[in-house]
Fold:
Amino acid sequence: LPLSVAAKSTFSTDEEQTPFDDITTYNNFYEFGTDKSDPAQYASMMKTSPWSVTVDGECAKPGKLNLEDILKPHSKEERIYRLRCVEGWSMVIPWLGFPLADLLKRFEPTSKAKYVSFETLFDSEQMPGQKRNVLDWPYAEGLRLDEAMHPLSFIATGLYGKDLLNQNGAPLRLVVPWKYGFKSIKSIVKISFVEKQPDTSWGRSAPGEYGFYSNVNPEVDHPRWSQRKERRIGEFRKRDTLMFNGYAEQVASLYSGLDLRKNY
Amino acid sequence: MRAQTAVQIREPYFTKAFKPVVFALALLPLALLGWGVWQDTLGANPIETITRSLGEWTLRFLLLTLLLSTLRRATGWVQGIRLRRMLGLFAFFYGVLHLLSYLWLDQFFDWAEIWYDIVERPFITVGMLAFVLMTPLALTSFKAAIRKLGRNWQRLHTLIYPLTMLGVLHFWWLADSKSRTEVPLIYAVLLAVLLGERLWRWSVPRFSKTPVTH
Structure:
């Protein structure tokens, strides 16, 4: 879809965008290896067509949809978001896609649905990194339903006006800009509406390091990284990390009354 | 004994050619990093690449330094020992650059933040400790110090064992809790082999015709 057709969003930042080459060669996608350069090297092994997504759990219209049917009702828009990795680096990425809420509403979640969980494709023939037991496969992530329904939460199918490359989570991925990057699960094949807070891969791997919320928070350190500062890819000096990655105005109210030090 | 049959490099080739070549090779990693900066081939996050590469080279030179006397005992190549000071000093050299890249490129000499890192993050704590232990070894590596310290020099320089272990631990703890430990594991295994050989020679005296020095 040409950029001129994509609607401009008021949620977009006008900060300088990270070069396409950096966005597509510096990736954490352990399904293809744990080095930042592995995904760009091996992600072509993944077949993104045909692709289907299973929707189940507490909703009126569960089912298995192929990618075309997922995408059809949504017009694409561009969202230029900051992305902050838990490792202390950040990028600015012009995503292409549609609000997550618009997708989720189609399945008519019931009143029992309190959380949404997501899963990435699990097939070690296509994702050689899954042959090693570095995480609990398939990769799983989750959001509280109100987080998922927030207008900032986004499903990306492209960036820089082009279709997503596999290393960035083709054919569709989540983008939750106020949380650390690993929450934005890639190459989604399953969406479940659930009553209880779901497990996440990183949470299972190291519960003391990766909490369910994982909101960007300069006040709460990761055991191995101070989260007070970050290096924007392409910049020399570090910059201060902002609460909720600079989206506090939009999302802080989601967490009123919640102790963010405990609920990291 | 195998020790007498091993091939030695003829003098003066060892001093005039072999040693300078090793010296030049030891500078190559730095040169390649410099070239990478110049040509912008170090990826999206060159500072991370530089810091990690310098850290790994520090470990590699420490292991090479430890390898020389193992090699002598295993093959009888006695000349290698004459490279030990040079390789040990290269380990320190890369260690200084590794530390400097952290202090400068990572923290921009924000001493409060650095202190906080040392106290709060165990992998930084052990890395700093390894560096602190390496410093007196580098400072006493010249002839006058060796003469002056006598037997204590030998004792002091056994610090290479704990400091290399701390270096490997530093790398291990940097890795994610469950994943990414494969490369640090390789260093741990190599170190275990080098230390194990010493332990074995030391505990089985009949093999230790050549005394166990580092």
